[in-house]
Amino acid sequence: xxxxxxxxxxxxxxxxxxxxxxxxxxxxxxxxxxxxxxxxxxxxxxxxxxxxxxxxxxxxxxxxxxxxxxxxxxxxxxxxxxxxxxxxxxxxxxxxxxxxxxxxxxxxxxxxxxxxxxxxxxxxxxxxxxxxxxxxxxxxxxxxxxxxxxxxxxxxxxxxxxxxxxxxxxxxxxxxxxxxxxxxxxxxxxxxxxxxxxxxxxxxxxxxxxxxxxxxxxxxxxxxxxxxxxxxxxxxxxxxxxxxxxxxxxxxxxxxxxxxxxxxxxxxxxxxxxxxxxxxxxxxxxxxxxxxxxxxxxxxxxxxxxxxxxxxxxxxxxxxxxxxxxxxxxxxxxxxxxxxxxxxxxxxxxxxxxxxxxxxxxxxxxxxxxxxxxxxxxxxxxxxxxxxxxxxxxxxxxxxxxxxxxxxxxxxxxxxxxxxxxxx
Length: 424
Ligand code: GDP
Fold this sequence. Notes:
Blueprint: E1 6-13, H1 19-29, H2 37-47, H3 54-67, E2 75-79, E3 84-88, H4 94-102, E4 109-115, H5 122-133, E5 139-144, H6 153-169, E6 176-179, H7 203-209, E7 223-231, E8 238-244, E9 249-251, E10 255-259, E11 263-272, E12 280-282, E13 286-291, E14 302-305, E15 312-323, E16 335-339, E17 342-356, E18 361-362, E19 373-387, E20 398-403, E21 406-416
Parallel strand pairs: 1-3, 1-4, 4-5, 5-6
Antiparallel strand pairs: 2-3, 7-8, 7-14, 8-13, 9-12, 10-11, 10-14, 11-13, 15-19, 15-21, 16-17, 16-20, 17-18, 17-19, 20-21
Helix pairs in contact: 1-3
This protein binds guanosine-5'-diphosphate.
């Protein structure tokens, strides 16, 4: 089977700065549209004496998608020779933020659109903040509508300098700024001869240049222990350690370490349900392993390989959470954190930043995280736990918070915080 590589890209920008036009142009120029679509819209515009807009393409595609089975109208699909892209166009969309923070979907890269004539708006900065809080680290800034400023390099450089300074403050190191005119097609899919001073990639080249996340089976092994079964079939007292592999692979003979207890052993056999024992198992497989030595471990521990990078062990971390609880997330109350098969008490220690998802409003001063807020927080668990940063391994870099028996928030871990660490 020839499975095409997929990548999620989020596109953000102040309203009217040209997001839909950029997407429409990318669709049209990569032939990602259904046959005849472009022509029929052009024809429609002509008949109704309307100027043709690339943004219309997106609207009609969305209409069609929403009439079909796709309910998520904020996504569109773009194909290049290299891979398929899902373009997510809804920065302040509550569903989108929830999906990003809880892990239903993650974006590998972000396009931030700024109108060259209007310049940087407060919303451009808010979007920057959101992209930063979502942990997207490949960010490209598209300085659009260059045709309205006569492709003047100075306008582009001024925006670049000012916005770079802002992005650095919020921990984003932009990959590149591209001067474009989505309307005229400059530097979107085709190089612009009107902005001849620019020698960098087009938007399309840049998309294909983004690094995709690694295949989960190529990452280090992470298997949360679900259960331990005792069996005495051959007269001996052996244990099966059961769980689902989140990432990596495991082979008979591999030395493994359980975290946070640090107990070690070697894999003796790998069993999987309804099949014969096997020598190797990969991410997404539910397996049971037997070990060469008798060690006592508990459900909730994380199995990693001795010779690969281990998870971090800590009780404090910085995370970005999306809160959906009826009651606000408040400091010093003990909630339950669930990560993999771990369940443990957790407290909110500090709020670093809050963004109200509906209003895209940044509010650092309110003392609690309310429903539909995205917040950057420091948490502390009652005992040390094993986890990874979301930037390294997704499966063990995210968690949910339970309040009153209900899932009330989802989070991604951005940073390990050791006590005395003031570089939040
Ligand atoms: P969005 O709200 O960010 O999705 O913005 P749209 O894509 O709908 O664009 C807003 C308006 O700006 C539309 O009238 C577009 O035709 C216009 N526009 C978009 N890109 C360009 C451009 O590169 N040059 C010019 N002159 N107009 C543009």
